[in-house]
Amino acid sequence: MKERIYLDHAATTPTDEAVLREMIPYFSEVYGNASSTHRAGRDAVAAVDRARESIARALHASPSEIYFTSGGTESDNWAVRGLAEANSEKGRHIVASSIEHPAVLGALKKLEKAGYEITYLPVNDQGYVSLESVRQALREDTVLLTVMTVNNEVGSIQPIREIASIAHEKGVIVHTDAVQAAGVVPLDVREMGVDALSISAHKFYGPKGIGALYLRKGRKIAPLLIGGEQERNLRGGTYNTPAIVGMGAALERAVFSITEVRRHLSSLKERFLTLTDDYVRLNGGEYSHPGIVNLLFYGVRNDELLSALDREGIEASAGSACSSGSTEPSHVLAAMGRGEGEIKSSVRFSFGKGNTLEEIDRAVDVIKALTARLRKDADLFKINESKKKNL
Ligand code: PMP
């Protein structure tokens, strides 16, 4: 049996054993409803409060600015719709990058149907938004700007601080999807100057199905879930105490080891990039997430490469796991100017703290061998096709 090599950490990460251990008592020992006033409830809410404090500390926010959600999708949906709706007296125009995650894009589409106007910022061929395009897009009636901190498909890191400062000059609320950034790119909401920021625990070695939205004090947002009074009456529902504890523990650990993890990921990336040759091009630029590499293998179909890799025990993806079931070509690579054929030849590899240099070396060897074979097959196929035409 070949050892499997997991290179899809942008899709999700394994939950740290230590994080899991911290969560376990909150399933059936400390099982009270965190909103109950008796002892069992008080024990649970104490754990929820501790997690809220550690998340706030990690983001340089205050605990009253942290709202628990079910993950990145919910945080993004809520931020975009809730902020636009609650502040629509300023206007109904929104600015977003064209490479946002579907969780943001989907929410924007809903708003568009409800009469909002959206301006999508272009990106250059390396996946970066320009400050000039932000300046040009903002209007008097712009209510919200949403630009992701790190792109999940190509890893580009956007200049959020500069973007936020331009937006604030026009009184525009700023949200950033920092789901891929947390644990790898330092996040300081005060320094970044954002009003809202989304994170999701399963991207930083925490459990799935739990996330948070940072919302700057004083910012108005429409309620998300109506019912109980949890989360300051904005998101009702019994607290998922074990998951909240897990997210708090995971983010604390991630922030503590961020320098070491970044260094490790950078060394893996550097080694992995020895793959690039005349047939392989990097989709992305210099200033990017050290664990995300998107490569374009000319002459190779990504679906064929991915299944051949899977048979060799190497797990990667064609881009976002959220859209991997769809046949639509990546909107991120399209926005970066890649043609359909180039998009269908692109594969995302994303490294995690558990990957080793030995694994990367093996992956590089396997990828080189497979692409050489698949590229040759592709050429043969072309010849056959033209031969057929001549018949
Ligand atoms: N935003 C980004 C940038 C992501 O990568 C993801 C996860 N693919 C999400 C949002 C959605 O997060 P979740 O899976 O927690 O809903």
Describe the structure.
The protein is an alpha/beta fold. It folds into 2 domains: 142 residues, Aspartate Aminotransferase, domain 1 (Alpha-Beta Complex); 240 residues, Aspartate Aminotransferase, domain 2 (3-Layer(aba) Sandwich), CATH 3.40.640.10. The protein is 43% helix and 13% strand. It contains 15 helices and 12 strands. The strands form 3 sheets. A 7-stranded mixed β-sheet has the order 2-8-7-6-5-3-4, with helices on both faces. Strands 9-10-12 form a 3-stranded antiparallel β-sheet. Helix 8 links the parallel strand 6 and strand 7. Helix 1 packs antiparallel against helix 10 and helix 11 packs parallel to helix 15. The termini are far apart. The C terminus is likely disordered. Bound molecules: 4'-deoxy-4'-aminopyridoxal-5'-phosphate.
Short structural summary:
This protein is an alpha/beta fold and 391 residues long. Helices cover 43% and strands 13% of the residues.
Which stretches are low in confidence, meaning pLDDT under 50 for 5 or more residues running? Answer: 383-391
Strand content: 5-15%
Tell me roughly what share of residues is in helical segments: 40-55%
Radius of gyration: 22 Å
Instruction: Quickly count the domains.
Output: 2
* Main beta-sheet annotation: 7 strands, mixed
On the 0 to 100 scale, the average pLDDT is 94
Q: Tell me, what is the CATH class of the largest domain? A: Alpha Beta
SSE-based structural type: alpha/beta
CATH superfamily of the largest domain: Type I PLP-dependent aspartate aminotransferase-like (Major domain)
The shape is: globular
> How far is the N terminus from the C terminus?
46 Å
Along the chain, the helix and strand elements come as EHHHEHEHEHEHEHEEHHHEEHEHHEH
Strand order of the largest sheet: 2-8-7-6-5-3-4
Quantity of strands, as a count: 12
